[in-house]
Amino acid sequence: MQVIHTIDELRTVLKPCIRQGKSIGLVPTMGALHDGHAALIKASVAECDVTVVSVYLNPIQFGKNEDLDKYPKRLEADAKLAESIGADFVFAPTNEEMYPEGDPLTLIRDESLESLYCGAYRPGHFRGVLTVVAKLFLITGANHAYFGEKDYQQVFIIERMVRDLNFDIQIHRVKIVRDSTGLALSSRNEYLSDLERSQALSISDGLRKAKEVFDKGEQRVAVLRDLVIKSILANRGQVQYVEVVNQKTLQKINGVLRPDDRFVILVAAFFGKTRLIDNMELN
Ligand code: PAF
Description:
single chain, alpha/beta, Rossmann fold, Pantoate--beta-alanine Ligase, Chain: A,domain 2, 2 domains, six-stranded parallel beta sheet, three-stranded antiparallel beta sheet, 9 helices, 9 strands, globular, binds pantoate
């Protein structure tokens, strides 16, 4: 496996693969890889001839007061993990390589969804994500890309971008990976103290309870949301949002759920200074 830092070099090694008709799988990451990323890489390795894992902490998707500076960085360990799973290339560009002229003037936006849920609290975040993901698609020429469902809104918006802009790439969603306690894996879990980590289980506990009552027939959105909110508040978490949304449109549902639609609960909450997101499909 090769670690590559420049766009030219990556294109040079991938060109022959593309010419030979090999399928290229891209796993975009910001590094600090964990078992959730491992599941994405595994899926790509199993389905594609060539797997590229990008490790790039994209500054333009972080707000001024967010955790860009403290985000964990460990390229060597990331490369070892990617190699052990069978990835062919790790692409780890510098900011100068990705944005040689400074902040890009051309940005990709989702006019409708970028201001909902996470986007409401992280202005500009999804513009930064879509722009870097589009760049990675164009740089690699990948035909497959793998994203985790923990970032449910992100993968939804990326799928929409692919349809809107006719990217010739298939997006694969990979289920959330949880640790043995139920906590959804995230590079940001590393910020949690032991106490906060145990308190943060209240997110997945609340989601599980909501799913249980939904499975027993509960259709009132307020009841489902309250279960999650109360679970988080009882464990000293601060709720940013808990919403029940339609899986197909990502539009928020109020009132009562219609039996013929599909729903997911989206959550963002703080434990101490750490912001965590999670979600659970109800059906
Ligand atoms: O989900 C992430 O890690 C990032 O948002 C992504 C998709 C790698 C873009 O920087």
